[in-house]
């Protein structure tokens, strides 16, 4: 296990105060704080390397290109992809999902084809598929879950049929924290000839994710949730699929040759990266991946799981506490309501105590409907969260509870 106090010292924001109280930041599923090395990577590059990538013959451009492509290789090794041609940089999970919906949808989906989602998907893994349904007349099927927040694999098996082309599933629910059995689900999808996409937004920051071992066809994640900068994200796609998919956007960088009659496209992954990429963001993301790898994702997972277990145990002792998501495989997120208190009031009152949590529908309204609520409160943990912070949070909840 790493040393928590020295890790916390790497994150300057964690020692600030809000309302004259020490900050207790428990909104890590929304975004994580950044270690000094990530912020410094951004500053260093702007101070001493900055130049546009891939086009210049000059020294700085070549150096910036080398950093950018080294970052791609870093992501490849982090995910254990076969080739860096399979790593496409995007703005984040949302853009990666829109890219797949648009481009895979163009190449592979016809009217009447079926795409399977789950009831616990984030809106960004629902709405792009609905937009595609409008354009292509595909059909969306939804895997249900039980009251513990575990997907119903029997129902999933029954949804799969010869019209199923693609299954899209969150690796970890951003609300319930459920870790879905995506390896098993991908094997089931492949057995019926369908492809499998993993939304790794909430898994990549918390435990080792290996695309070859999962045997998934696509995996997407956001840099800002894994201690990297905002505005940079990743799409992993199996090379033979990406080869068959048309470009998502047109512009510079993604072309081989352009004339008014005809344009040919660059090789992978550049075909999907129109325009100047966020080359500073990719470099800083690589630093963030180095940071979590140096601590060890197994150690991070062990720490966060222990905290989650402890938090749920303590929270369950409070009268009127309703916990959502009690799956056996659960990670770093605890969603809840306190009887008689609107989650927004709860969040606002905790905030005055310096405790930052999330409230609302968490971009998962179908899941809220399934749970029969308008909204929930959510605390989510990170590699730097301490037991003392969980204690402060539970004490804060108790204090708020007594006000009502
Ligand atoms: N999927 C999941 C499971 C998420 O938790 C999130 C972010 N809350 C997203 C997708 C969207 O990520 P982003 O806003 O970074 O594109």
Describe this structure in words.
Helices cover 40% and strands 17% of the residues. The protein has 14 helices and 17 strands. The strands form five sheets. It has a seven-stranded mixed sheet with strand order 4-10-9-8-7-5-6, sandwiched between helices. A four-stranded antiparallel sheet has the order 13-14-17-16, with helices on one face. A two-stranded antiparallel sheet has the order 1-2. Strand 8 (195-199), helix 8 (211-214) and strand 9 (218-222) form a beta-alpha-beta unit. The chain binds 4'-deoxy-4'-aminopyridoxal-5'-phosphate.
**The CATH top-level class label of the largest domain:** Alpha Beta
- Gyration radius (Cα, Å) is 22 Å
CATH architecture classification of the largest domain: 3-Layer(aba) Sandwich
Tally of helical runs? 14
Terminal CA distance:
40 Å
Instruction: Please state how the strands of the largest beta sheet are arranged side by side.
Output: 4-10-9-8-7-5-6
DSSP helix fraction = 40-55%
- Domain count: 2
- Note the overall shape: globular
Mean pLDDT: 97
Topology-level CATH name of the largest domain: Aspartate Aminotransferase, domain 2
Heteromolecules bound: 4'-deoxy-4'-aminopyridoxal-5'-phosphate
Main β-sheet: number of strands, strand sense, barrel status? 7 strands, mixed
- Structural class of the secondary structure composition? alpha/beta
Q: Uncertain runs with pLDDT below 50, 5 residues or more? A: none
- The amount of beta strand, in percent, is 15-25%
Q: Let me know the number of strands.
A: 17
Assigned CATH superfamily of the largest domain: Type I PLP-dependent aspartate aminotransferase-like (Major domain)
